[in-house]
Specification:
This protein is an alpha+beta fold. The protein has three domains: about 20-105, no CATH class; about 110-215, Band 7 domain (Tetrahydropterin Synthase, Chain A), CATH 3.30.479; about 250-295, no CATH class. It has helices at about 20-40, 45-65, 140-145, 150-165, 170-175, 175-190, 210-250, 255-270, 280-285, 290-300; strands at about 65-70, 70-80, 80-85, 90, 100-105, 110-120, 125-135, 195-210. α4 crosses α6. The chain is elongated. The protein starts with 17 loop residues before the first helix and ends in a 6-residue tail after the last helix.
Length: about 300
Amino acid sequence: MSIKLSEGKLKTDQHIPPIAGMIFAVFMAAAVLGALLMDGKAADGWISAYVLVMILIGTIFMFALKVASQWEKAVILRLGKFIGLRGPGLFWIVPLIDGIPSWVDHRVMVTPFAAEKTLTKDTVPVDVDAVLFWVVWDAEKAALEVEDYRSAIAWAAQTALRDIIGRMMLADILIGRSAIDEELQRIIDERTTPWGVTVQSVEIRDIVIPQDLEDAMSRQAQAERERQSRIILGESEEQIAHSFARASESYVNNPTALHLRAMNMLFEGLKEKGALVIVPSSAVDTMNLGGMSGMVSLAQNNMPKESK
């Protein structure tokens, strides 16, 4: 079981800003230039003292001047006691007295986390990957209330995810991702609010189930589709039967219409070349179809033959 952190450990140190290095270089140059100008005009002790003072002032400026980026807040401790936040921009600290234990980033952070081989309520092991979007709204609480808020947030998110999975059935997990996202956001936000952190959203990326179970679910879905298709086919046959029943009611008291319909069907079948139509003898006798078929054949024989 592992947790991926977005940016690793807390940022506990800041590089010396370029402007501080430039100021230090200016004081060093002034020390050297002053020593050269005073050479022969002052005692060696005064020259040494001047050089040391310039170096000391340059060193103080170099370590006292700090720069925080637009998205950062520097946590200032004076002799171990919190005195405030600094930044963004240029600010000063007292060297050897003030310290900056951490720099707090106020941008939206992304933390991926996962729950591996977690049993659902119906004892199915699943692997779930998710992404957490969060932001620090109170840098003081984030620095003072928890040792490493990044790791704490990641562990809290994973614990909440495993807890939710253990309380849900597999089917509910597969079809209810949005509900899991909302529940995760609520639980994690409750845990991280005392740390000065708010959760903006949680998104489930992937849910992996065992391969055997996936194959069984695929066969079940295929059988369900087959059942639905048979039901639809049966309903179609039932509708067709009702349609024929209504048609028969129209013909039962109107034999002339029935004869006309029969002759039309016979004509449509006989006019195709090479068509073979089998008509029951009872239909020939009762509907006088024999005469009709003879008339059709005679008409076909008397038609002018097509030129080849």
